[in-house]
Amino acid sequence: MLLNAAYYMDFSPRYHHTAEMLQTEQQIIEAAKQNPEHFGPLYDKYYKQIFGYVYQRMEDKETAFDLTAQVFLKALTNIEKYEYKGVPFASWLYRIAHSEVMQLFRTKKNLKTVNADISDLRNICEEVEEEYMEQYKGILMTVIKELPEDDLQLVEMRFFEKRPFKEIAEILNITETNAKVKLYRILERVKKTLTKKSK
After folding, report:
1. Is the CB of residue 100 less than 8 Å from the CB of residue 71?
2. Contact at 8 Å (CB) between 27 and 138?
3. Phi/psi at 10 (nearest 5 deg)?
4. Threshold 0.90, pTM exceeds
5. Disulfide: which of 41, 46, 64, 112 matches 55 by Cβ 3.0-4.6 Å?
């Protein structure tokens, strides 16, 4: 696994849609269910976001392109299974992308990259005194790198990508409450580990 703080892709998830936007999108989805040729607008709308999500997690750009194509192919071939849940179609695409990325890393762990802006995680360690902050940065990188894959994904989505809990829950196919509880427990473990390592 590579840990890269210098590179951080500009990521701005467009999760918030108006009711009108959601209704229009749902009409496109229903049309695509009837005729795959109508899938184009969904591809055009979300390709950049899904590619960003995939590429941010690996070193190989070509693999990211291939995996993103696979995500949209799976979405197209399984679109009849899609059920509207009051959130943008992107959440379903992210769930497929998350599954594909995790499957890839099971066989090719060397592709994994953690792209982090350390300032996004300062609030994890409010108890660390300012005079120790420089030392803390290096320790935090080590702690993040050692997180289990599922925990790392949650931290990435919440802190690095600024995703709301509702969207995280949708992507991971868990409840919003469960997502919050999981993250709280992860942060508690991180704080304990940092305290031990900084002594």
Report:
1. yes
2. no
3. -65, 115
4. no
5. 64
